[in-house]
Amino acid sequence: MENNTYAIITGACGGLGTSFALECAERGYNLLLVDLPAAHPEKLERFLQENYPVRVKSIALDLTAPEAPAQLLQRVRNEGMAVSLLVNNAGLPQNDFFENTDSDYMRKMVEVNCISYVSLTSALLPDLKKHPQSHIINVSSLGGFYTLPRKTCYSATKGFVRQYSQALNMEINRYGVHVSSLCPGPMTTNINNYMLHRDLNWFSQQMLVHPREVARYTMDKALKGKEIIIPGRLNRILHRFSSAIPSAISKRMIINSMKQLDKKGKVSPA
């Protein structure tokens, strides 16, 4: 790895974002960590600097701010960073019905889950093109393939990320810039999610994948140029066979699953 080559990770202080940071550090990437000021990305910066022989920098940004892409690009240029990997991981969830979800929150969800990915990629693409081989990983979701009650806007944003990533890859892979869409199922990212998933049936629990495993599998596949990445063997099998299930049956399965969770007052993150 070149001494000034960096991976940029947004949403770096969450479960999956931190897992990507650890995985990239283990692979020798220098890191620029991006997260909200309240997430204190400088703490993760210090931890990684103390434990890995790589350069680590951080920047506190609200990615919904119009000036955020320019501020990030300015930091990259000022410090002479050569960006070879961009992980667009920042995101907001949805775990309630549309009518119960605040409209300002839904607007912010679209800004974080979709617009920030487009804006940051647009700002950093000239730098990514300077490398013989560089990579963009956009975090979508297995839920982005389906219409999910209580994830009305969330699943739509993740569907956007997947289709946008595939189209972008067709446009820019001729420059040696490869775009991958990560579509994970539910992950055990924190104690709240663990307690939630503990209430699911055995089959649903088998779909769970630890974020460290997700990050490791994703990096392996993305560096080989894979376009759609689905961690977890069972998740891949279910996705492969889901296209053979009539839509009426799949909708009924989704509704029944939601009813199971609704009885417990919980909805699993997708």
Automatic annotation (TrEMBL):
GO molecular function, one term: oxidoreductase activity
Short name of one Pfam family: adh_short
Any one GO BP annotation for this protein: fatty acid elongation
Gene3D superfamilies in the cross-refs: NAD(P)-binding Rossmann-like Domain
Organism superkingdom: Bacteria
InterPro entries to which the protein is assigned, alphabetical: NAD(P)-bd_dom_sf, SDR_fam
Keywords tagged on the record: NADP, Oxidoreductase
Family: Belongs to the short-chain dehydrogenases/reductases (SDR) family.
PANTHER family: HYDROXYSTEROID DEHYDROGENASE-LIKE PROTEIN 1, VERY-LONG-CHAIN 3-OXOOACYL-COA REDUCTASE
Protein name, as recorded: Short-chain dehydrogenase/reductase SDR
Source organism per UniProt: Mariniradius saccharolyticus AK6
